[in-house]
Amino acid sequence: MQAGRIAEADGLRVAAVEAVVENNQAIAEEWLVRILRPYPDQGARFYSASGDPLSNPVGHLYWESSRILVDELLGQMDGERVTSAIRCIVELRAVLELPPSVALAFLFELKEILDDHGVASLELYYRRIDEVALVAFETYVRCRERICEARVHEAQRSVSALKRALESRDPSAVAE
Q: Staple 98 to which of 102, 104, 149, 170, CB 3.0 to 4.6 Å?
């Protein structure tokens, strides 16, 4: 009797997963619209219009990464694929200097999309999204740190260049 319930439950899970897989494209498309919300209307339209990597590399990265994330979040959760896809999106958003609450909000909006699409086993997918959000936050922080370090190095180079320029005019004018 117990084995029968387990087999029945497994069958329901498999059916639910198959239904989700059929919806992945629609979910990814709806999610892409939300991912692009922080951009001005014209930019969002451009990035969502074409996924061609040559004419629209940013749009292509967003489209491919969102599709991979939906497939993995609702599928096998290949850690390397998830990390690579989330890194693409988050690094683009970190360069835009969006605050973390805006830059990462798109992850939590996926929960609403899954609910709207009637996805079963929401608790499992919500946990996965939360796990990915933690990876995304770490990625965002590391990227912002690299950007800040680059700015500091650039400022140091500028100061050194100014010192050299002043020294070449009047060596006594610059105090070490």
A: 102
